[in-house]
Here is the input.
Amino acid sequence: MLGPLGWVILGLIPPLILMLYFLKLKRTPLEVPSTYLWTKTIEDLHVNSIWQRLRNSLLLLLQLLLALLLILACLGPGCRGEKLLGNRFIFLIDQSASMAAVDLPDGETRLEFAKREVSKLIDSMGPEDTAMVISFSNQANVQQSYTRNRALLKRKVSAIKQTQRSSDISEALVAASGLANPGRTSDRETARDVQVADALSARLFVFSDGAVTAVPNFSLGNLIPEYRPIGGLDVPYNVGITAFAINDDRDTTSLQAFAQIQNFDDQDHAVDVELYVDGEIHDVQTDFTVEAGDLRGISFDLGALLEGLEQTLPVRLEIKSPDVYEIDNVAFGVVQPPEQIRVLLVTRNNPYLKFVFETDLLARRARFEVQEPRFLETKEYAEKATLGRYDLVLFDQCVPPIMPESNTVFFGSVPPGGQWSAMEKQFPTLVIDTDNTHPVMFNVQMGNVLIVESTPVSGPLGNVPLMESTSGVLMAVGPRDGYEDLVLGFSILEYTPDGEEIYNSDWPNHLSFPLFIQNIVTSLGNGGSFNEAEGTQPGGLVRIKPKLPMKKITIRNPLGQDANLSARAERQFVYGKTEMTGIYQVLEPDSNRQEQMFAINLLDSRESDLSVRKKLEIGYEEIAGTVETVPEFKQYWTWLVFVSLFVLVIEWFIYNRRVFI
Amino acid sequence: MSKVSSGVMGSEKTNPLLAPDLLAQLERMELVSRKIFRGRMKGERRSQRKGQSVEFADFRNYVAGDDLRFIDWNMYARLDKLFLKLFMEEEDLHFYALIDGSRSMEFGEPSKFLYAKQLAAALGYIGLCRADRVRIERLDSAATTDAPTLRGKANLWRMVQYLESLECGNDCSLTEAIKAFSLRNTGKGILVLITDLMDKSGYENALRYLVARNLDVYLIHVLSQPEIDPDITGDLRLLDCEDGDHAEISVSQRLIDRYRQTLAAYIEQARDFCARRGIVYMMTSTERPVDRLVSRYLRQRGLVR
Here is the structure.
């Protein structure tokens, strides 16, 4: 507030007044009949006249008091409406997307306000108090661990940046509770569990708008929580896009963009929505009315955009009416030129599989190649497999010598390498459960499917069972160096050693079989749709698989900043710096040729709902917000100036009215 | 009488030395001395001496050589013895009024000096009416003075004229002036000293001179209201009008209180000093009208009746 020079000048004022008082003394001469009595009167006062003068000079004392008050006022004294009790504080600051809302009276974002509030609290800490600063969005960042250095704490608080991520407080709570709730260990001899360290209770201040997921499985223990809701008291005006997708019609080549527009205000609003394709306006819907608190779907026909499409196109949907929260006014998508995936089917002679791949839909999406098992022994296979020329390889009762660089499906056999194993043949096989949430099993009903014999399988670590029978797992999907292997523990058509075909299942006769194959092509073969370029929410990881094998790629973020990535595995790149929503470009590092694009969207209705939550649920506790006690720094200097003014008036009064002297 | 009063009135219109109604009041008064003095001339007051007057005093036996005119022949006829009739002798009285003419007397509204002159005039007029010898002087260390000795009511005009001619600004110490006065005047009588006692060398010796003269001394201590209750503020450099001495003060309530205490102590000390020496002390403010002072306060003190 004041530099050293300022302090020196302030400190010099009182001595200066004293000095001036003695120097000034321009005493008014007054002729009197005799100084006799006066001399007698002040005789004893002469002994220590300086102090007598001081003592007798009410005006000087008042002037000194005035100067003192003004100096105090310059120091800007104040005190918080509340006193921070306790010695340890943890400040949890929400930095999720919703904190970017500008709904506070003085035009600052919620995060800025929260940071300011935290800085004030830090100012009010005692010299022995320690504090810790944690910011959280969907992940927690310990900005500063426990320290007494208030300047450092404030610096770290001011360095907290706004993110466009969603909110999840649980990780931050775990980080906060470290010292407050130390781990426990069980003592075998006494059969009791003991605490490994002394619990150090702390006060936990949560500065958030409350748009966080409830944390049911967390015990605050020794943390004393205090929730400071940040945000305006009224429901702010926000109309946002909470869902956005571009889909093709399965039968035609036309494209449609769907969006869900939600009004979080308590009043109806009409907004203008614009759709941009490759930076140029494509379609507009004006006065799209959404009722208060309601949501409405909106669709745009992109037409035959895919025909003749060679380049990936960015798509942007924008609400043109400004509101307090801008992140959800824009949604991004990507339209990629359709591409046939290459599928290799290795089978002796399975007419059903061949037949399925000849359907119109799959024929349009996939280029289909059938080979006999002996093809696997050839050089050609080895070459194509290692170069990743196939997107999907189906092995029908055969095992390749080397696994291809692609996703695979095994019917009635297990991948080589020992990670997968099959049990003895079981008979009969009764399907008791399928995991229909997995994309491979989407809409696949196995209830009426008969399977004669099966060899239940077990996969590597991280495999997901998709179909279970009485005797074990019939179908599972497991990871392999960034690829996925789907293993079915039964075959459809078996061959006797003399070449006779035996039906092991009637699955091909059911509708679920072509659906299953279609799902395999869609999900495992990445041949599902035009815009399969994988997108995620801000902060998520994006897996990038270039069309050609590359050692390095360049990712250009929406701001135009480039980042180089090295391949993790063959043709596998993982990009994690997806902090911003928008279109990210994948470029070849040397030629800067655009390889592909992906979109990052928040599309989180919880973040878009800007109403400030009155309470926060942590574990079994509900922490009510303490809005009214959001610490106000009470400035007293104005009062001091008032008092100074009063003193000045008294001085003036005394000097002029001579009431007292 | 009308001529005199008009002269008195005309001399100082705004603040006359003697107001006409005061004159009438004063004519009924007389100066009283607690001591019986021997006058030089026959006056209007009884003397201790028996003498020729109309007031009977006593009888005594006739002895050879007595004036036969004083024999009480009625007694001789009745008792056949010669008795001499003794009469009280009536004498005149010396009345001195001494006015302090130092510069400090100039202060006050009206000034102390004017007040002193008014008082002297009033008392002098009483004396004139009673055929006393009235002499009003300004304190002066000189050996001689032009102050007239007056007697008889007709001399009022001269007295007033003389008083008006007196001016303030004669700085001599009280002691010196009293000493000079004592040397000049040897007569006994009443002496009224009108002063503000603001003499840094002290007033005690001066009063001792007077006491030694065996005069009936009245001390009228005149102070102006600003001296009694100072109305000053701020940081002041007080200048003594007489000797140029200065005192620096920063006025505060405390200082004012202390001044009042000092003044009270000073007055008390003077009163005490006077009481021990048979001097009648009286402190008055210039705010107190002269007629009230004479008719009430001095009557109480026994100077007039």
Summary: The longest strand of chain B covers residues 42-50. The mean pLDDT of chain B is 81. Chain B has two domains: 2-37+92-301, 43-91. Chain B touches chain A through 41 residues (CB under 8 Å).
